[in-house]
Amino acid sequence: MQSWRRRKSLWLALSASWLLLVLLGGFSLLRLALPPRPQPGASQGWPRWLDAELLQSFSQPRELPEDTASPPQAPHGGSCNWEACFDTSKCRGDGLKVFVYPAVGPISETHRRILASIEGSRFHTFSPAGACLLLLLSLDAQTGECSSMPLQWNRGRNHLVLRLYPAACPRTFQLGQAMVAEASPTVDSFRPGFDVALPFLPEAHPLRGGAPGQLRQHSPQPGVALLALEEERGGWRTADTGSSACPWDGRCEQDPGPGQTQHQETLPNATFCLISGHRPEAASRFLQALQVLAALQEMSPARVLALRQQTQFLWDAYFSSVEKVIHTTLEVIQDRIFGTSAHPSLLWNSPPGALLALSTFSTSPQDFPFYHLQQGSRPEGRFSALIWVAPPGQPPLKLIQAVAGSQHCAQILVLWSNERPLPSRWPETAVPLTVIDGHRKVSDRFYPYSTIRTDAILSLDARSSLSTSEVDFAFLVWQSFPERMVGFLTLSHFWDEAHGGWGYTAERTNEFSMVLTTAAFYHRYYHTLFTHSLPKALRTLADEAPTCVDVLMNFIVAAVTKLPPIKVPYGKQRQEAAPLAPGGPGPRSKPQAPAPDCINQLAAAFGHMPLLSSCLRLDPVLFKDPVSVQRKKYRSLEKP
Amino acid sequence: MCASVKYNIRGPALIPRMKTKHRIYYITLFSIVLLGLIATGMFQFWPHSIESSNDWNVEKRSVRDVPVVRLPADSPIPERGDLSCRMHTCFDVYRCGFNPKNKIKVYIYALKKYVDDFGVSVSNTISREYNELLMAISDSDYYTDDINRACLFVPSIDVLNQNTLRIKETAQALAQLSRWDRGSNHLLFNMLPGGPPDYNTALDVPRDRALLAGGGFSTWTYRQGYDVSIPVYSPLSAEVDLPEKGPGRSFALEATFCVVLRGARLGQAVLSDVLQAGCVPVVIADSYILPFSEVLDWKRASVVVPEEKMSDVYSILQSIPQRQIEEMQRQARWFWEAYFQSIKAIALATLQIINDRIYPYAAISYEEWNDPPVVKWGSVSNPLFLPLIPPQSQGFTAIVLTYDRVESLFRVITEVSKVPSLSKLLVVWNNQNKNPPEDSLWPKIRVPLKVVRTAENKLSNRFFPYDEIETEAVLAIDDDIIMLTSDELQFGYEVWREFPDRLVGYPGRLHLWDHEMNKWKYESEWTNEVSMVLTGAAFYHKYFNYLYTYKMPGDIKNWVDAHMNCEDIAMNFLVANVTGKAVIKVTPRKKFKCPECTAIDGLSLDQTHMVERSECINKFASVFGTMPLKVVEHRADPVLYKDDFPEKLKSFPNIGSL
């Protein structure tokens, strides 16, 4: 019995050893038996030549060619590039000045509005001789307004033919050296760096303003279709993440069936949309789309998030109105003329976009209030106070002392906008004080004075009253939000049902959408925007109705940032004693004739209502907390 | 293996009482097995000299010994380059397939020597640079030795310099390549195109549909989106260590701008030298397509001046602000380091560009191509960069993490359910030993209430991106936060809508640098500053749940779960690091758990707690390699908070002062 057991264990040991031997030996034998095939990659790659060191260089110094003078020539005479066909010498000085050929005969409403939008832009000039770009509108053929060859044609040199809608006029004359801006140009005729590709615009595209993007949230909603694609018949189909993707071999055999896709008439709610490009082979697109699906499913949420937001930004910045499309075209051409002082790529591709970030202000992104994050930079730690002294015009001595007391104040500028003579004596301050003799116009307040060197401006009215710690705290807040206005007193806008228009009030409410510029911090870039990008009509409006200027400035900043301004605490007693706004705290308490209409005129000029409301105020962390005032840094803010 | 050998050695001792015949039999058997094992073992560890020497034979050959191919005079010649070629017309992308790595496969034809009917060679076999280039491709991830799996073919026929070739015969050599097929999916590298007297700007060798990576393209010959413009490699660049020794380079080192003039050819090797010196190239060569211009933003590194404006160069350069010049110099140097300095860099950049076209959804971004490392490090690209105020109607999802404090949990649920914008309540039940209360026992609330049971009691469960979260806004709330009022919570949600990319929370905390200990310290005292909000009660975007769960750097996530602490600090680090922005503390509220508590909250006074939390900050700062938290001195209150204004007219009257 025992020996049987022993024998059993013996056999077990023996067979285990055999197994091991067979396993190990087998591997070795296998390796011996197979030819010593080199490992893929390592040894089958490009050989290491024994004589690699002896190989000759591809270019021997002696065979370098001699210089020749003739530049490379275009293979066909008709082709153009920027250097060959555009004469930039005409654009010296003012940059891009555009002359638009007037329409011959009766014109359509669209045509008229497009003309108006160019004439309203900062590029426009009425003199063809002073223009560096001559613009020829080529619109719809139906109204019979096809243009004949214009007078100053000059073989099309420095001309831009703008074709906003397809199926425009037949070519009645040779385009020659003219640039063409049109929708969906073909690869064969499009000259990169010379022509401009436009989006396809429907007839009903709004002239200015335009509908904002429809994206209401950053990330896709759960359960929304992954992909929507246009069908030949005009409807839409959607495909979900569940749809099985065809293998990537170019040919999908079977139709995925109705279970996985749905047909719809209108553009469905989907994360991605497949654009077929209106080609005859569009019928087969659907199957290929399923291959796209596989790629889309692989895409990381971070990338989907980024793409979604970028589509909205591009739409808002460049596509949503005819005016934006035209101004973008001109901006593109201006960038070619500017060369080194053109918009850097970052300005084109991140909010607020190149139409609102003027390269004439700076070509360094960190000079703007918008790009500090991307640049890893931060706004300067000091500000310039700009005090506007309007009639009756007492030198604001107390205010100057309070502002100069701030450790962040770099300089004080007094804008004397007053009939009275300049006072000869000004208070002694720790920071430089400069007096500028203004032109008695409200818009002077927002001129980009070269003396303002700091990023931040504290805009003040001589009658404003602020304490040093109010200034200090507000400036700290501004540094966290350099693209916004940070103010003490607020206005709020509302839709007035009774009058069917916008209205605004200075009454204290639970929400606000504007801050008064008579005491507010903002970036000096907004002075450039105010002076150089606003249509002149709007600045005139502000000059004629001074209370309107607050609204205008808030419109500009809101249109650029798409965010509400920020309110910081303000000693309330003084608020009632010394109203900040010239002519009263608001239009309601002391109505002035043009004021109520101001906001509606601006909304019309902007094409939409850019103002947004906020329901919060930023206070110091321990503001009015039941704790010893000794602990509080901004204790004077709480004094009754 | 060792163990079995020992066992076998002891083997014979186990069989002492057997018959001798059997004994001998067994001993012999064991010995054979033993010997076999030893032999096998030795073979395993013996240096495999046979194979190695074989490898050596395969690799180390002489260039002179490559096979010779005779090209008959009448062998076919490809069509001339097709100027209308684009990726969708002349390139078969289906060869590349859909692959998870999104990488094209590149095959290199074996090197051969081509001779004509008379035995005269067609060209130099291979130049040093082309050999280096093919070696770089072969060593890269793109390479495949399987011609059937390849989607891009690189001939080993060296056409870098047109002057060293016989054009017709070279074309014939191309045409007889095994997969030539009119040149589709074939890539040729040429740096010196054309020849006297008129110097064409692209390689004159007929090449049909082949892609050309050429140095010196003009707008007339460059097929945008198809060809790749590459630099003309400067052999001087090889002497990386001694830049000042290169002829003509001493001037470049001192100059700010260096003029690169068109010669007979547009592409100039001097461009590379100029970039290396960090000198801003002033390119005066009309119609020249700058190297890698498909992806490189040359406006950032160069000044292009039309030839007819050559006389204005001085005034053009003078108008460039100093800061822009410095950025251009940095950019020039970066371009050289990344894309010009070696043949390898040129080869890999070319393949990357082609790869980006074939897998556009996985393409390298503009920033990755163009931003120098110093900018990449310093910059933040906020994942929620679009200024957008989400509509109020969306509401928020409250997520309550709980273990077993059912009574307190129910109270929190009841309080939170009063908030108008609450759209769903999610209870994360983190206790595996106990079942959640029965359905009938839960408070009846007006919004859906879901209970998620977790597999493990981990803190990170609270930040998991559950499918049940349908809103963008998430309110994370502990099961003992009973003091927050409905007004406070609703106001917090409104504030989040204005700052959807930030953590918007109630308990504020601060990190400080401890100068004595030389490390970070956690602070929960009454301070004038805030740098964190605790996720015991905070609103944030649900995308951060995804980031926390899948993209948290280093071992932080596991570390937090192991220590059962600091998940909130980790979230603050994560959000601040990815957005570059500070938190928003809302309302003055300091007490959250019980009205009687004297301190800010009971826990904070515990000394060990403070030490642990400080440890967390130091640990996270070292993993992130930086301190991302931003300190601010403000908090968000309702516009009319503590204003002299009728309470009943205020939107959020019930804001506690403690």
From TrEMBL, chain A:
<dbReference type="InterPro" id="IPR015338">
    <property type="entry name" value="GT64_dom"/>
</dbReference>
<dbReference type="InterPro" id="IPR029044">
    <property type="entry name" value="Nucleotide-diphossugar_trans"/>
</dbReference>
<dbReference type="Pfam" id="PF03016">
    <property type="entry name" value="Exostosin_GT47"/>
</dbReference>
<protein>
    <recommendedName>
        <fullName>Exostosin-like 1</fullName>
        <ecNumber>2.4.1.224</ecNumber>
    </recommendedName>
</protein>
<keyword id="KW-0325">Glycoprotein</keyword>
<dbReference type="GO" id="GO:0050508">
    <property type="term" value="F:glucuronosyl-N-acetylglucosaminyl-proteoglycan 4-alpha-N-acetylglucosaminyltransferase activity"/>
</dbReference>
<keyword id="KW-0256">Endoplasmic reticulum</keyword>
<dbReference type="GO" id="GO:0005789">
    <property type="term" value="C:endoplasmic reticulum membrane"/>
</dbReference>
<comment type="pathway">
    <text>Protein modification; protein glycosylation.</text>
</comment>
<keyword id="KW-0808">Transferase</keyword>
<keyword id="KW-0328">Glycosyltransferase</keyword>
<keyword id="KW-0472">Membrane</keyword>
<dbReference type="GO" id="GO:0015012">
    <property type="term" value="P:heparan sulfate proteoglycan biosynthetic process"/>
</dbReference>
<feature type="domain" description="Glycosyl transferase 64">
    <location>
        <begin position="383"/>
        <end position="623"/>
    </location>
</feature>
<keyword id="KW-1015">Disulfide bond</keyword>
<dbReference type="Pfam" id="PF09258">
    <property type="entry name" value="Glyco_transf_64"/>
</dbReference>
<feature type="region of interest" description="Disordered">
    <location>
        <begin position="574"/>
        <end position="594"/>
    </location>
</feature>
<feature type="domain" description="Exostosin GT47">
    <location>
        <begin position="96"/>
        <end position="292"/>
    </location>
</feature>
<dbReference type="InterPro" id="IPR040911">
    <property type="entry name" value="Exostosin_GT47"/>
</dbReference>
<dbReference type="InterPro" id="IPR004263">
    <property type="entry name" value="Exostosin"/>
</dbReference>
<keyword id="KW-0735">Signal-anchor</keyword>
<comment type="similarity">
    <text>Belongs to the glycosyltransferase 47 family.</text>
</comment>
From TrEMBL, chain B:
<dbReference type="GO" id="GO:0050508">
    <property type="term" value="F:glucuronosyl-N-acetylglucosaminyl-proteoglycan 4-alpha-N-acetylglucosaminyltransferase activity"/>
</dbReference>
<protein>
    <recommendedName>
        <fullName>Exostosin-2</fullName>
        <ecNumber>2.4.1.224</ecNumber>
    </recommendedName>
</protein>
<dbReference type="InterPro" id="IPR040911">
    <property type="entry name" value="Exostosin_GT47"/>
</dbReference>
<keyword id="KW-0256">Endoplasmic reticulum</keyword>
<feature type="domain" description="Glycosyl transferase 64">
    <location>
        <begin position="396"/>
        <end position="641"/>
    </location>
</feature>
<keyword id="KW-0812">Transmembrane</keyword>
<dbReference type="InterPro" id="IPR015338">
    <property type="entry name" value="GT64_dom"/>
</dbReference>
<dbReference type="GO" id="GO:0005789">
    <property type="term" value="C:endoplasmic reticulum membrane"/>
</dbReference>
<dbReference type="Pfam" id="PF03016">
    <property type="entry name" value="Exostosin_GT47"/>
</dbReference>
<dbReference type="InterPro" id="IPR004263">
    <property type="entry name" value="Exostosin"/>
</dbReference>
<dbReference type="GO" id="GO:0005794">
    <property type="term" value="C:Golgi apparatus"/>
</dbReference>
<comment type="subunit">
    <text>Part of the heparan sulfate polymerase, a dimeric complex composed of EXT1 and EXT2. Could also form homooligomeric complexes. Interacts with NDST1. Interacts with GALNT5.</text>
</comment>
<dbReference type="GO" id="GO:0046872">
    <property type="term" value="F:metal ion binding"/>
</dbReference>
<dbReference type="GO" id="GO:0015012">
    <property type="term" value="P:heparan sulfate proteoglycan biosynthetic process"/>
</dbReference>
<dbReference type="Pfam" id="PF09258">
    <property type="entry name" value="Glyco_transf_64"/>
</dbReference>
<keyword id="KW-0333">Golgi apparatus</keyword>
<dbReference type="GO" id="GO:0015020">
    <property type="term" value="F:glucuronosyltransferase activity"/>
</dbReference>
<feature type="transmembrane region" description="Helical">
    <location>
        <begin position="24"/>
        <end position="46"/>
    </location>
</feature>
<feature type="domain" description="Exostosin GT47">
    <location>
        <begin position="101"/>
        <end position="242"/>
    </location>
</feature>
<feature type="domain" description="Exostosin GT47">
    <location>
        <begin position="254"/>
        <end position="320"/>
    </location>
</feature>
<comment type="pathway">
    <text>Protein modification; protein glycosylation.</text>
</comment>
<keyword id="KW-0735">Signal-anchor</keyword>
